C-alpha cells in the first residue's frame, strides 16, 4: 500500500491474507453472544443468519495523533467487539439493519440501489450512518462490479462508545467485511483495512488508519507496530510478559464526529507541514500534507525534524493572517484549499505545539518497540522503567502540546501517579479511556481496586447506579491482545 493525501493507504499488492470463513467451535468463548444475537436475528427476520462477523475495538499503547501524519502506532485489539449476524437476500435490494439494543439504537431500512448517507447538521451521525459508510466503501471499491444485494443484519456491540477504544471504526470495519462477503469478494486484510479507513471520511472525520488496521491485523498475544509508510505493514510486538495493561474509562464521552476538535488537529498538522515544506524551499510544498512525506523529502531524522520545527515555528499561536502571509495565499484560498467543512471557522493555529507533539511522539513509538524487542531478547535491565517513562511523556505531551486531555482523564492519571503506575490517555482523547501499564497481575489488581475506590465509587449517582451493580467491570479492566476481524459460518 502507498499513502494517499488523506493519511490513509492504498494497496500495492504483497502477501495476501484474507479473512477466511471459519466454523464456530463449540468451546469458543464467543458462543454465548453469537447465540443471543442469532436468536434476536431470527425473531426479527424469521430465519437464521448466513454468517457472523466479529470486529474488535482496540487500545493504543503508544503513538497518539500521529497516524494521520503518516507515522506508526502501537495498538492491540481488545476483546470488546462488534458482532453482526448477516443474511444475504438476493431477491431484493433492501438493507434491514437492527440493533440488539433496540431501545437505544432504532432499526434502519434502506434501498441499496439508492444508498445515501445523510449526516445531521449537529449532534453527530446516527449509529447506522457508520454502517452505511462501510457499505459505501465496498460499493466504491467494486465500482461497476457492485450489485445491490439485499442484506438483513442484526448488530451487537460492546465496545464502549466515544471512549477512545475505536467503537466507530469497529462498526465501519464490520460493515465493510460483511458487505464484501455478501458481494462474494475475497479481500486481503490490509485492503479491507485500507477501504475501512477511507470510508471514515464519509462520516466527516479525516482520520488516519490505525483503528481499521489493527481491527483487521490484530493477533492474539501481541500488540502490533503498524506502519503506514511507504505501505501498510503490521509487525507483531511482544509486550513484556510480566506487564499487565489496564484500561480505565473516565466516562467523559467524546463523540469525535460531533465536534471539530479532531479535524482541527489534522488541519493544524497539515498546515504546519506545508509551512515547513515551503521554508525548506520545496516547490511542491502545497501538496506535502503529512510530516512523514516532508521528513522523507528532506531526508531528515527525528532530531533534525524537531530542530526544524523549533527554528521555523517560533510563535505559540498563529492567526489566519500569519498563515496567509507565510503561504502567500488569500484568506479565501486558505479556507477553500487548506481548511475543511468543519474547520473553516478556525481563527488560531497552534502549529508549533502540534508539530512538536507529532514528531516527539513518533520518536517514542520507535523507542517503545525497540525496548520491547530488547526485553524479549533478555537485554536491557532498565527497559521496563523506560517503557513506563515513555507512556508518561506521551500523556504529558497530549495534555500540554496537543490539548486533548480532559479533567476526568486527569483525575485518573493523578490516581495512577499516586499508585506509581504509568498511564496515558488512549485514542483521540478529550475524555474516554486511559491505558496503564502495571508491573504484574497482582499489581494490576491493586491498581484497579484503587481506581474503583478513588474514582469510580465517587461517580455521580446516575453513573454509579449504572456501573456499580457489576462492580465497574465494564469500565475498568485488565486487557490482553486479541485477534482481528473474524468471519464465522454456521
Ligand atoms: P478514536 O480513539 O477511535 O477516536 C482516533 C482516530 C485514530 C487516531 C486516534 C488518535 C478515527 C476513526 N480514529 O481514534 O485514527 O488518529 O484518534 O491517535 O478517527
TrEMBL record:
SUPFAM superfamilies: GHMP Kinase, C-terminal domain (SSF55060), Ribosomal protein S5 domain 2-like (SSF54211). GO terms for cellular component: cytosol. Gene3D superfamilies: 1.20.1440.340, 3.30.230.10, 3.30.70.3170. It holds the Pfam family GHMP_kinases_N. InterPro entries: Galactokinase (IPR000705), Galactokinase_CS (IPR019741), GalKase_N (IPR019539), GHMP_kinase_C_dom (IPR013750), GHMP_kinase_C_sf (IPR036554), GHMP_kinase_N_dom (IPR006204), GHMP_knse_ATP-bd_CS (IPR006203), Mevalonate/galactokinase (IPR006206). One of its GO terms (molecular function) is ATP binding. It comes from the Eukaryota. Residues 381-456 form the GHMP kinase C-terminal domain. Keywords: ATP-binding, Kinase, Nucleotide-binding, Transferase. Belongs to the GHMP kinase family. GalK subfamily. NCBIfam families: gal_kin. This is N-acetylgalactosamine kinase. The lineage of its organism: Eukaryota, Metazoa, Ecdysozoa, Arthropoda, Hexapoda.
